[in-house]
Write a structure and sequence with these properties.
The protein is an all-alpha fold and about 260 residues long. It has 14 helices and no strands. It is about 70% helix and about 0% strand.
């Protein structure tokens, strides 16, 4: 019981801050336009759905931890370049146990999977949060770090397949996919492979990139993400990426689950 209370306490504080309006937003350095009073003045129904269903229900579902829900949410916001609530959710992620180094790595990772400018916008939001929390550069991953071990066999198979399929179409893409993504970025130790996969799958769903989901969802499950967690991530993403993006991803996820 004590562990359960400790786990949900940050979310309860977040819901309380949400209910307190503009003053709470100002203290957290978030967008006052997203205060309950502001939302209610435009759409009472939207404010009620947010309070009752999203924060009062979805965030409390048991198959995905609060930490993982924050990771999924940040990935969706960055993938969609939705900066309005980013500071608020970076704060919440840190409250939920996502380390500053992991926030840093999520942003770096998504520069490659969601685009450079999306990552730059997220870096601006994180900079403000880190400054308010007195998070120092020495708490963040270095630019060059000792890589995690490489699965030589799996990587050789992946590289050979991509070279055969696309080597003549876009040799530059193939080159940097191997050199930067899979033999550098994915081996950075600041984010566990399972979490890096969760970030990638969440971003792909949020961006509607269904063709890339089978490979990365399989990789995520190989890296330790369970089917229940993957399923719950889709439920969570319905609220942050929209039902159409999630319903487009559902047949693909179903196919992956059935083949495994």
């Amino acid at each position: 019981m004590k562990k359960l209370v400790a786990a949900i306490a940050p979310l309860m504080l977040f819901a309380a801050a949400y209910a307190q309006g503009q003053s709470a937003n100002a203290r957290k350095g978030t967008d006052a336009a997203q205060s309950p009073d502001s939302i209610r003045s435009v759409s009472p129904a939207l404010e009620k759905y947010a309070q009752d269903r999203l924060f009062g229900e979805v965030w409390k579902r048991p198959d995905l931890s609060l930490r993982d829900r924050s990771v999924v949410t940040l990935a969706a916001l960055i993938a969609r370049n939705q900066t309005g609530g980013m500071q608020r959710h970076i704060n919440l992620a840190l409250d939920h146990g996502v380390k500053p180094a992991e926030v840093s790595e999520i942003i770096t990772h998504l520069a490659f999977y969601s685009g450079w400018e999306n990552a730059m916008a997220a870096a601006d939001a994180a900079k403000a949060v880190f400054a308010r929390r007195n998070i120092k550069p020495e708490q963040l991953p270095p630019a060059i770090d000792k890589p995690l071990p490489l699965d030589e066999v799996a990587e050789a198979q992946r590289a050979t397949r991509v070279e055969q399929d696309y080597g003549k179409t876009a040799p530059g893409v193939v080159k940097y996919t191997t050199e930067i993504l899979f033999r550098d970025l994915w081996l950075r130790p600041g984010l566990a492979p399972r979490d890096r996969s969760l970030v990638t799958v969440s971003a792909l769903v949020a961006a509607g990139q269904v063709a890339q989901i089978p490979y990365h969802l399989n990789r995520a499950m190989d890296n330790g993400l369970t089917q229940a967690q993957a399923s719950e991530a889709l439920t969570h993403l319905a609220f942050y990426a929209g039902w159409p993006n999630v319903f487009s991803a559902l047949p693909v996820a179903k196919g992956v689950f059935e083949k495994r």
